[in-house]
Amino acid sequence: MSACERNYSQTDKEALAILVGVKKLHNYLYGRPFEIRTDHRPLLEILGREQKTPDVLSPRMLRWSIVFSAYNYHLIYVSGKDIGNADGLSRLPLPTADITVPHMEEVLMLESAPEPLLDVRMKKETKKDPVLSRLLHYLWFGWPQTVPDDLKQFQKLKAELSVYRNCILLGSRVVIPSEGRKTILETLHSTHPGVVKMKVLAKSYVWWPGITKDIEKFVARCEPCQEVARNPPRENVHPWEYTKDPWSRIHIDHAGPIEGQLFLIVVDSYSKYLEVRPVASTAAEQTIKRNLIRHVKIAPYHPASNGQAKRMVQTTKQALMKQRGGDWSTKIARFLLRQHTTPSATAGVSPAELLMGRKLKTCLNKLHPDRRPGKLEENTSPSDRLKKINQSSLEIIPIMDQSGFQQ
């Protein structure tokens, strides 16, 4: 079939197959009646001589029907499973007997151990072992009323212990004497599996008191395993202690550069109150020394130690990059106002409430009729209000002196 014919519909392909066959046998069929058997039922309505040519027919099928009209044929439908002539190999298979090919046994690998692990050796070592020899005696003649301390761990498992051909078994696992344990560990670790794989393999064959710890120590001391092992497991995380007062501990980091600008990120550990300031450099030694700040450094290559600042760095970067229009001071002011007034998911209140003891007013406060700013007292003059502000400032100054800040 040509590339164009391969794109025909199934009905066109079936009609094309009949057309090719009729043309090939033209010298034998022309002028003689013959039958055409097909398993495609729609062709009966299109090419059947007893049927009228459909009014709606593709030009291709119409041309073929004209060609077929020159022959005296009878089109018959036969189910595909009953037509064996077209594809005898698949439709009319010969019955075959099932032949079972015998499995070929092959030796994949021959390996000899330096010290063969035989039950004969285990018997001898068990009789020589000072602990297992007594355990063997107790299993034969019964347990005494008072059991030595080194055999109490076996007494707890006496229901599962048994003796078979002078070998002590725990269930179906062989209890290994002390002299043969190193050989067993080397055999279990011959291909350098991990601790879990060794434990699973050992659980199927051998046992002795403390086998789990012995396997862990053996793998930990294996140099090839440690050379290709992953990074050592992380130690238990010691979280920062909760602070009881605002600004008693702050987390500091630098963000940027964002469009060539560096930013200093300061987070209050108590209230999560955030301050962002543009800076020219990251140098801070003189500032820390001048303000008597105790500088605590985090672990190297472990940013999670300063997680509060790192998280705020990410939040600040995203917020500043999302804003369109305005200078840095405008963008920072908008972002900080939103951060200070948004309640925290853990505390349930905003950072401003934890720090100042009150909510900051925003444009959203004007939506509620009960939260509109109240009227000033009628008898309060501007000079009286100024005196109250000055009095509040005088109360704050002594507190700042005690904290070590310069006036």
From TrEMBL:
Q: Does the keyword Hydrolase apply?
A: yes
Q: Which UniProt keywords apply?
A: Endonuclease, Hydrolase, Nuclease, Nucleotidyltransferase, RNA-directed DNA polymerase, Transferase
Gene Ontology molecular function terms on file: endonuclease activity; hydrolase activity; nucleic acid binding; RNA-directed DNA polymerase activity
Q: Which Pfam families match?
A: Integrase_H2C2, RT_RNaseH
The Integrase zinc-binding domain, residue ranges: 176-228
**Main enzyme class:** transferase
Q: Which GO terms describe its cellular component?
A: DNA polymerase complex
| Reverse transcriptase RNase H-like domain location | 2-71
- Any idea of its EC number? 2.7.7.49
What domain of life does the UniProt record list for this protein's source?
Eukaryota
Q: What is this protein called?
A: RNA-directed DNA polymerase
Taxonomic source organism: Lasius niger
Q: What is the lineage of its organism?
A: Eukaryota, Metazoa, Ecdysozoa, Arthropoda, Hexapoda
